[in-house]
Every structure is written in C-alpha cells, then in structure tokens.
C-alpha cells in the first residue's frame, strides 16, 4: 500500500500493477482483497519503468496532490476524447508535486513557450488552467499561468504516445519558426480562429513530428509539384524559404510531396487574409 488512494497489487497474470481509487486502501491490510467498485484507474508499468520507481514517487507525494493529478487526467480524457499514455500518471504527478513545492518556496519558473502553447494547444492549455483552479481550491496555492502551459505540455506528450518532453518542445519551436517565416514573407496577421489556420497548424504539427521521427517520405508526384509551383509562385517561394531554414538548422530537406502540401496550405491561409 502506498497511501489510502493508491496501492500496488497483482494482475491475473501475476504482474505488479498500480491501482487508484478514492479511499481504496483505507483501513485495509496487506494481503486483503480490495473493493472492485472503488477502482478508478489501473495501470501496469510501461517499458523502462519499474514498480519501485512508482512506489518511491507516490510514497513521497501528499495524497491530495495525487488526487488532484488523477482528477486532472480524468478531465483531460473527457475533454480530449483520446487515449493518453499511462506515463502521464507519473510525469504529471511528479511535475505538480515539484511545481507546488517551488511555488510555496516563492520560486516562479517562466515557461518560454507559454505564448506558443496557448496558440497551438488551446484545449490542453485550458486543461492546465483547470488544474491551477483545482490547486487553488483544494490547497489554497495560487500558481502563475506559465504553470498551465507546463501542464499542457505534459498532456500533449501523453497524447503523442508518451514521447519525450524535449521532442514536444522542439516541435512547438519549429512550428512557430515556420509560422514566422510565412508571416514575414506575406506581411500578414493570421486569423487564429479560421478553419484554414487550424488546418495549417495541424498539418505543420504532423509534418514536424514525422520529420523528428525520420519517417520516410512517400513517392512524389512531379506533375502536381510543377502545377503548384506555377500556380502559386509566392507561396512556393515561401516554401523554399522554409526548406532553407530546415536545411540550415536541422539538416532536413522537404520532400517534393511536402513542398506541394505546404505550398497549398500557405496559399489558402494567406489568401484568406487578403479576402478579408
């Protein structure tokens, strides 16, 4: 037993797993059966994790913080309607514990990507704000909005099959750099509520993720490439600038197909501004 709300038990296959639930271990002794109806979440450690790591983490964290973390994750599931990596129960709980300790000591950490996170991951940032509200209500601790952005990054990681936090940060930076290139070339201010802008951001996020994971490009369509190059010369020129940036900073070259898709998205999102 780790605390009243978290215990370690065995699966049907005799594997150790973590079981969570409000008061699930209250007045229980080692070896006693648990009440199934009290189980809210179970998970088996993923590769690279050990039950000892989980045990050490949850033993040193106050039950109230674990409860806040579990509730935030449940809220994230309800809002995002997507599967989250089990790692989030460890990474987010550990982060919240450390962030709360820092705040109590008067140490505030600035997140340099707060502005980008608010733009690119609006739902996740909203979950971060909900977390701050919960911490204030339950613990009386007021945290700055940069912490909402940091919480959002952990949620984004969990959506991306538990990828490294550094990868998510790098993805966010590259997307922002590409948007800056487009904005400067066309001298435009994006309508961040438009469908074309949202679709453009989504495309960039998936493209950058593929790039960082070194996913091989699909066969190219040279005819479509030539057509787009002729029809949208300014957007194509912007794509070339993006390619130069990626080559210079990440030693990565856009595939022919990616140049086509990127040019079309740039044309749509910039034409929309001109129309307005």
Structure description:
Pfam families: CAT_RBD, PRD. Keywords: Repeat. It comes from Carnobacterium iners. This is Transcriptional antiterminator, BglG family. InterPro entries: BglG_antiterminators, CAT_RNA-bd_dom, CAT_RNA-bd_dom_sf, PRD, PRD_sf. The chain has 276 residues and is mostly helical. The protein has 3 domains: 59 residues, CAT RNA-binding domain (Transcription Regulation, Sacy, Chain A, Roll), CATH 2.30.24; 102 residues, Orthogonal Bundle (PTS-regulatory domain, PRD), CATH 1.10.1790.10; 105 residues, Orthogonal Bundle (PTS-regulatory domain, PRD), CATH 1.10.1790.10. 62% of the residues lie in helices and 5% in strands. It is built from 11 helices and 3 strands. A 3-stranded antiparallel sheet has the order 1-2-3, with helices on one face. Strand 1 and strand 2 form a beta hairpin. The radius of gyration is 23 Å and the shape is elongated. The mean pLDDT is 83.
């Amino acid at each position: 037993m780790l605390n009243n709300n978290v215990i370690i038990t065995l699966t049907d296959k005799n594997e150790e797993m973590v079981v969570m639930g409000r008061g699930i271990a209250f007045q229980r002794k080692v070896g006693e059966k648990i009440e199934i109806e009290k189980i809210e979440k179970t998970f088996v450690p993923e590769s690279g994790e050990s039950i000892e790591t989980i045990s050490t983490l949850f033993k040193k964290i106050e039950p109230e913080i674990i409860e806040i973390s579990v509730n935030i994750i449940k809220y994230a599931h309800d809002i995002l309607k997507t599967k989250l990596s089990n790692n989030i129960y460890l990474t987010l709980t550990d982060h919240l514990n450390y962030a709360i300790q820092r705040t109590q000591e008067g140490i505030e950490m600035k997140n340099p990507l707060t502005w980008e996170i608010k733009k690119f991951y609006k739902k996740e940032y909203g979950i971060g704000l909900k977390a701050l509200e919960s911490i204030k209500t339950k613990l009386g601790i007021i945290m700055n909005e940069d912490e909402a952005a940091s919480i959002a990054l952990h949620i984004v990681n969990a959506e991306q099959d538990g990828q490294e936090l550094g990868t998510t940060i790098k993805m966010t930076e590259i997307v922002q750099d590409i948007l800056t290139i487009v904005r400067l070339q066309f001298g435009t201010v994006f309508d961040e509520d438009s469908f074309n802008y949202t679709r453009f951001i989504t495309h960039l996020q998936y493209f950058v993720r593929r790039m960082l994971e070194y996913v091989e490009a699909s066969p190219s369509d040279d005819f479509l490439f030539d057509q787009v190059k002729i029809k949208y010369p300014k957007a194509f020129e912007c794509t070339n600038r993006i390619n130069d940036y990626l080559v210079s900073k990440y030693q990565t070259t856009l595939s022919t197909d990616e140049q086509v898709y990127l040019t079309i998205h740039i044309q749509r999102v910039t034409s929309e501004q001109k129309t307005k």
